[in-house]
Every structure is written in structure tokens, then in C-alpha cells.
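Progress against Task 2.4 (sequence-to-structure conversion) is shown through the following example record, which the project officer requested during the mid-term review.
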Amino acid sequence: MTGAHFFAVVSAEIRKLFSRSSTRFGVLFAILLGLGVPLTAGFFRWVAEQAMDKPGQLQGLDPSYVVFATLYIRNFFLMRIILIMVGALSLAGEYQTRTLREDVLRPVHRSVLLFAKWLALVAFIAVTLIVSLAPATALSVVAWGTAGDWQHVLLGWLATLACDAGFAALVLAVAVVLRSVAGTMVGMFLFYFANVALGWGLIIIANLPFLKLPDWARDALANVGPYLPPAAYDAWTGASPASEFAGTGFGALAVYGLLAYIVADRVFARIDVP
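C-alpha cells generated for the chain above:
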């Protein structure tokens, strides 16, 4: 396969993905989020000034903090839910509607087709990040200036792209195995909330005052935590100005993402497409 042919396959998958209403809804939601967080922050600041009878006298907000807050709200399972829906429709949906057969009958290896679908999901993630980052940054800079820790902001958004790309590989793996949109969404929702529960559970267990764990048990919980899925898929939080950046989460993310993609590739190569 030539580079031009591969680019044509990827472009076709991207166009197909962005033609769906679920994808367009995700982009629109990202735009509204990028506009809504700075406007909401400004509104509450204005309300506080009026309540204190100090119009224009309160200290301005940190614009980089407002932009990073936009990222936190975006990643509070909202965009992940949309990503699950878009990913499920991109493979399991096509399998159920039998439009996937048109793709596998083309002279394109199934591994290339799967990779193109994953790249289309990564393109969707990148677009949603850009359309929320740009308005959030523009409004924050206009309202409160350019001061702030913009390096951490950029790292946070790039780290989010990596985490969501790994999560997209998992969505494709589940979609290939179950081959059902409803099954993929239910399975991913259960995994996601179990993932969140596991992360909080480890923190609670390690800090319960009445549960006197031995030192070796506390050390084990602390050491294993960065390698578990909760730390891997939320490794972007290490880019926060309030956190210390650690590479263990991204290492685990790479392992989980690669394993999920290998499972998706192996199963997709063997399934019968009606």
C-alpha cells in the first residue's frame, strides 16, 4: 500500500466519522464548554463585585487557571461519554448496519482499516480539544490578561490527547469484541465507573483512620496505584500546576493502549462481517 492510498483511507474514515450527528454534537459541546467556563467565571466574579460593592476592584482571575479549569470540566467523564458513543458507532454501529462489509471488501488490509478508524477517533479528540481550548484561551486573555502558567496548560491539553487516544483504543477493542453499539456503551460505562471507583477506593482504603494497615500494605497501595488503569487514563492530571508530573501513568497508558489495540486488531482480523 502506498502512502497516498493510506492517506486516502484515513481521510475517508475521518470524513465518515465527522458526518455523523454524534460527532458533530461532540464538537458543538466542546465549543460550548470552551465558551461557557470563562463566561461563567466572569459572571461569578461580576456578581461578587456587585455583592461587595466593589465594581472592578477585585483582583483579576488567573487566565491560565480558568483555561485549565475548562480542561478539568471537559475531562470529568463528559467528553469520555461522547467518545464512547462515537467510537461505538464507528465500528460496532457499522457492523450492525452492515456498512462495514463495504470497507472490508475493498483491497485494504483489515489492520489498515482498523488503524484508520483509530486515527479518525484521534482526529475527533484533537478537534474537540482545539475548539474548546481556543475560545477558553481567547476569552480568558481578553478578560484577565496573559499572566499565568501557560506551560502547564499546554502540557495538560497534550496529555489529555494522549490519554483519550489510549481510551479510544480500548473503546475499539470492546466494540470489536462485542460488535454491538448498546453492548459497547454499557461495557465501557461499567469499565469507566469501575475505573473511577477503583481510583477513589485505593485512596479511601489507604487513608481510613480506623483501618490500621501495616506499613508494607500502605507502601504496596502507593506503589501499585500509578500503574493501574485509573492512573493511566487520568495521567493528564499530572500536568496540573498543583500536581507533580510523573511518567509512570503515561507508561501504564502506553501498555494498556497497546494491549487494547492488539486485541482489537487480532479479533477484527478474524471476525465474519455480514
